[in-house]
Specification:
elongated, mainly alpha
Length: 126
Amino acid sequence: AVVSTQSTGVPVLENLLSKLLSKEILHEPLQELLNLYPDWLEKNKDHPKFAVYSKQCQIVQEICDIFNGNNSQDEGSRVYSLLNAMQETGPPPDEIVKMMSQEMPDAMRGGPVPGAGLPGEQCCIQ
């Protein structure tokens, strides 16, 4: 078999991202996160970042709604966009992060979203 050396690797990256953003990987930890937000928000209405954490809760709810729908496999770009929006708000409240299982994706802890580097930024592997 001949392997093209002119391949950009984009299909491989897209395939990897679609697997990382799949319902099978993200749904359980996001549902866990979503279950913790309402109680925390109710108890912390005076928190200086209450509006930010409320927005995070809405974003997680949107992603879970997508995963609970019939077309979740067709919504990969929407999930990616929502994860980026979540990442831009910073990490969830420390109390929630401490209650979460260790399987929580880095993006939900305020870490980087895979493939969400700056435009033109090269992958660290390159």
